[in-house]
Known about the structure:
By secondary structure, the chain is α+β, with helices and mostly antiparallel strands.
Amino acid sequence: MVDRPKVLAAVNGKPFLSYLLNQLKKAGIRHAVLCTGYMGDMIRESVGNDHNGMALAYSPEPIPLGTGGALRLALPLLHSDPVLVMNGDSYCQTDLDAFFIWRREQDIPNAMVLTLLDDVARFGSVEMDSRNRITRFREKTYEKSRGFVNAGIYLLCKKAIARIPEGRSVSLEREIFPALIEEGIAGFLSRGEFIDIGTPESYRTAEAFFDDLNVGRNHH
């Protein structure tokens, strides 16, 4: 297999990234910033500065910065508040418009999409109270159990992003999200399908996954 960034892995003849960008475009997003690390130039050459009329900007990492550090580096390019943030190696079939509206109604600065899985072993799980406030992030246990997992889609206020330490590797999942519990972070439950391509096994299921969703063709 040709060495390439994970987001350019071919799924049904299209890079995985194109499914994420299509999801943003359908939600009416007009401007997106791609945080690029390893072989980021290849991503820019493949995708360009426009995706079906949605303007794309790039924030290349000079050194590996992790999910949090890369987001902090991109802050000067981010124009909205809150900022919609998406992982590049997972896809969750969710209504982004409903997520935006729901977060406004919660009167809480930060929110993430959660999905219910029969087996959370690979991901760790998320606990909430009766008001959808996240109370705990549980580490991976590798014991099969049902629970809510982080689906890789977030609405984060700019103040939270600005507090991420600069110039070093920072993990959103391990360092930033647990620290946001006190300030307030809510969980929005998506009932849509979820996939990540973090392992060879999960990547191999991606083509059937998107075939089933009929993504990009008459799917709502």
